[in-house]
Amino acid sequence: MTSISIPTATDSCIRIPAKAASTESIERIGVSVKKAAEMLDLCEKTMWTLVKNNKIRSVRIGSRVIVSVQSLREFVDGKESRDST
Question: For residue range 23-52, what is the model confidence (pLDDT) as tens digits?
Fold first, then answer.
């Protein structure tokens, strides 16, 4: 374990353990259109077309468009992401 040494007035050091790196990672349920395009190895323009044509589920939050990761998986598996109504 890495520690940080802090000198004191008496020439001794106080050792404070460094904050351990978090091994937890947050599983994303949504990504940007750019990241979604990278995940599918597509150009960003093609991904925007898929989003616009409701082939991939997405949500607009402010000015950002977030693409559902589950929708990406369903698209690759050949399942319909949205009803065609």
Answer: 668 888 999 999 999 999 999 999 999 999
Q: How far does Cα 41 stand from its chain's mean position? A: 16
| 57-71 pLDDT, tens digit each | 999 999 999 999 999
Domain that holds residue 67: 28-85
| Residue 51, domain member (yes or no) | yes
Query: What's the CATH code of the domain at 68?
Result: 1.10.10
Burial class (CB in 10 A: 0-12, 13-18, 19+), 64: exposed
Who's near 82: CB < 8 A, 6+ residues apart? 54, 55, 57
pTM of the model as a whole? 0.63
Domain count, the chain: 1
